Structure formats: C-alpha cells, structure tokens
Amino acid sequence: MRPTVGQTIALGEMLRDHCSLYNGALQERREAYRHASKTSIKYGTQSAQLKEIRAFDTERQGRWSFSSQQATLRRLDKAFTAFFRRAKSGDTPGYPRFRGANWFDTVDFPKDGDGCRWDSAPPRSGHPRPLPGRRARQGQPAPASGRQGQDCLGQREGRKWFVVLTTEQSQPEPLDATGGVVGIDMGIANFLADSDGRFVSNPRHGRTAAARLEAAQQALSRCKRGSKRRRKAVHKVAALHRKVRRQRLDHAHKTALDLVREHDFIAHEDLKIRNMRATPAPKPDPDKQGAFLPNGAAVKAGLNRSISDAGWGVFLTILRAKAESAGREVIAVDPRNTSRTCPECGHVAKENRPAQEMFHCVSCAHTAHADTVGALNVLRAGLVRRDANQAKREAPRS
Fold it and tell me: Above 90 in pLDDT, residue 106?
C-alpha cells in the first residue's frame, strides 16, 4: 500500500486496538483458568462479548469492523489449540504470550465489504483501493470485489504496508507429462545435486549479508533506548533480515519451479532439520568438578548457521506445493546411508566416502561425486516406494 502520513497513523492505531483486544482476551483466559476452578474460556464466549465491548469503548474498539475483531479472537483461539496439542504430544508447549505493539503486525478482514473492500477497478490514480482512501500497487491480477471466499489481510513489514488477498479458485490444470524422474540430495557445499549429475550452487545469502548485518546490529546496540536513532537502527536491521529472507524465497521458488517443470516424479531425503540443528550435549570433566570437556559446540554452531542459511525446510515446502498444483509426485525417503551406498554394486561402508565430495567404493572401485551418488540412491529408493504404494492401492480388498 501507499498510505499518506495520516493514513499510516490510522493503520497503526488499527493494529494497536486489535493488539489490545488480543491481550485482553488472553488475560481473561489466564484469570479464568487460575481463579475460577481452572475454567477454560472458548472462542464462542469471547466472541459473544464483542457487542458489549464495542458499545463500551466506541472510540477505539467500536470503530473497527466486527468480523476483523472476530478474526483476532480466532487467532488467539488457534494459539491455544496449538498449545494444547503440543502439550498433549509431549513437545515444548509454548504458552501463548502477550503481544507488544511492535509484535502485532497483521489484521485479517474475512469478509469483503465489512471494514475493508478490494476494488479491482483502478481509480483515476491507476491503483486499486483495498481500503477507503488507501492506494495499493497491484503486483498480480486480483480477483473481482465481492467474490465468495475472498479474504483480505492488512500487514505491516517494517515501515511498509501490504495487502494480502486470499480467494478460492478452481483446480489448476496439471502440466504436460515429461516422463522425467529425478532424485535430489540436499547439501551445504551445493544447495542440491540431482541424479542426472547436475548441481545447484548454494547462494549463501545469510553469509553474504553477515558483515552488513553485524555492523547494523552493533550500531543498534550503541543507540539509546527510546531514541529516534534507535528506531532508525531497528528498521535498518529489520530491512537487512527481510532482504535475506526474500532472497532465500526467490531462490527456493525458482529452483523448485525448474524441478517441477522438467520431471514427473521427484524424490528427496526426509530430513529432520530440527534434529540436525540440535546443539551437542555438554561433557562434564570427570577430573575437575564444574569443568567441561570440548564437545565441538563451536563447530556445530557454524554448521547450524549454514543449515539455516540454506533454507532446506522452506524449499521442500515450496517444492511440494508446486508439485501438487502441477500434478507431479513428490516422495520423501530415508536419508540413512544414501551417500555411503555404491550405486553399482550396492556395497555400504563408511570408507566409501573418503572425502566430502568424493565417493570411491572399496568393493568395486566405482568413483563419482558423493552428492550425485546420494541423489541416485534417493531416486532408487523413491521409485521403490512409489511402486509399493501403487501396488498397495491396486491390491484387491478381501
């Protein structure tokens, strides 16, 4: 969006009022559970109170749309639903927290015309108007106003404002079959290697921006809290992080699109990225009380930064989404021993990989790039799993 100064202030007040509603609803749930015999308040109860809240506070809560406030309460309800799900499954629960004014950046308008209207016909200025008096530069053709299922989201990113539209659409047409199959091996030196012997280089956007980000963070640490210089420094750090994030997304989208266009079947490793980024456990020194032995934490920290910089999880999520819309098949396989198994004779040994990029089978002397060998084994395992799934679907029921 391209709001004026006055409109920017109004949008900021909209976020603060919805944030206040979110925090008030959270406080009500906390107090009800603590002081009312562990009573749980649901979304329906809090939504029914909105009419009284809007009538009592007409200057703040009463000026925004009813449906957008309901969406804010649903947002809190989803946070509690996720909290109970994680607690029940044994994961770290992560109890919902209060949001500060700078940590509440989105307001959802579920109904077109209720507090927000998207007019796809551009006015004289040439820009569509998502909100009264607020122009937006349209990046892609947007659906017509009033279409059923359309959802409008106002979002703040740093000093910029965006409109995100969500609408129902028909099932996209699948791409034409190519007959190609491929296996991919994710890595650090190369972003990925496929079974055809091709490589996609790792752009390392985070490492490229590390020096500028470090300088910006050091300048931020020297600023006085609450000052204008600190606000400017915060925006600069956020802009650098935002640029790196968008560069990763752009690289992931382009790489996934190339794979989906050229292949009907794609196999990849089922990576447990969270486990791969786990820090090593400390090693107490048996000879000295309170002392610890070296455990490689510094080296592991560098590896964890490289894994995060590569963005494997984001890439695989985008790959699955694009493959589904294009009618392609994606299968994840067990990554164990994929780079230690010889694709010629099937011999598995740790000694088959004497170096990071070199594969040399100690049984048949087959030599190749280690990542290409891993991609070949991933493809074979994926094809076996695909055939097994197809045979299971076609098996007659007894």
Answer: yes
